[in-house]
Design a protein that fits this description.
By secondary structure, the chain is of the alpha+beta class. The chain has 3 helices and 6 strands. The chain starts with 6 loop residues before the first helix and ends in a 6-residue tail after the last strand.
Length: about 140
């Protein structure tokens, strides 16, 4: 059997990840089939042209995809692979990674993630999209 996650436990899992703590990530939504991860855009997360570094966007997509998968498969999941397409430079006050389950199987969960920035006026701008395959480490037994 897999360990069921709820928002409180999912936030504890996030807090146990040193890199998530470093970037100041917050799990702002967590429900069956989806998760939203956010963090403030800071100067130390930017690349030389003033937008969020692609590696930071990749981290946000990877973690949001995994949490979305965990919402249906439990805590014992890990990323098997993901792809990301950068659509425009990520500039703003806040980065938001919204992930949703596309299909959940016994050993794999496929998810999609939209990454957006939010500016000072609250306008949300899509800057990247990702899709990932998440492996279930403890397949539930029926």
């Amino acid at each position: 059997m897999h360990q069921t996650l709820d928002l409180e436990l999912a936030r504890k899992v996030l807090a146990a990840q040193p890199f998530s703590t470093l970037v100041g990530a917050r799990l702002t939504a967590f429900e069956e089939g989806g998760a939203t991860l956010e963090f403030d855009i800071r100067g130390d997360l930017l690349q030389q042209h003033g937008s969020v570094h692609g590696g930071v966007l990749g981290y946000a997509a990877d973690n949001a995809l995994s949490f979305a998968a965990g919402s249906v498969a439990g805590a014992a999941v890990t990323t098997a692979g993901f792809s990301i397409d950068f659509l425009r430079p990520a500039r703003g006050e806040l980065l938001r990674a919204r992930a949703a389950v596309v299909r959940s199987g016994r050993t794999r969960v496929v998810c999609r993630c939209d990454l957006s920035t939010v500016d000072a006026e609250g306008t949300e701008t899509l800057c990247a999209v990702a899709q990932g395959s998440i492996a279930v480490l403890e397949a539930s037994r029926a």
